[in-house]
Amino acid sequence: MTDAASQELLKKGIAAAKAARQKPASPEQIEQRRRQARSLLARVLKLDKNNIQAWLWLSTVVDTPREQVACFKNVLALDPTNKHARAGLARQAQVDAPALSPKITHLQNRPTAPAPGRISAKKARPDGPGCPFCKQAISSIDTSCPHCGLRLVMTCPACGQAVEVEHTRCDNCGQTMGRYQTPETYFAGLGQSYLKKGRSQEAVTAWQMVEKLNPDFPRLYLHLGQAHLGQERPDRAMASLQRALAQNPDDPEIHFTLAEMMRRRAEREKAFDYYETVLRLDPKHGPAWLRVAGIYEQVGAKKEALKAYRQAVKLLPSDSEESIQARAKLEQVEPTLPEAMASGWPELIRQVTGPILICLMAVLFDSGLRPWWIQLTGWLALGLALFGAFLFVSGSSLPRNPVMRLVVGKQGLPAGEQKSIVAAVGLIFWLIALGLILWPINQSYPDIPDLP
Question: Of 64, 87, 120, at which residue does a domain stop?
Answer without folding.
Answer: 120
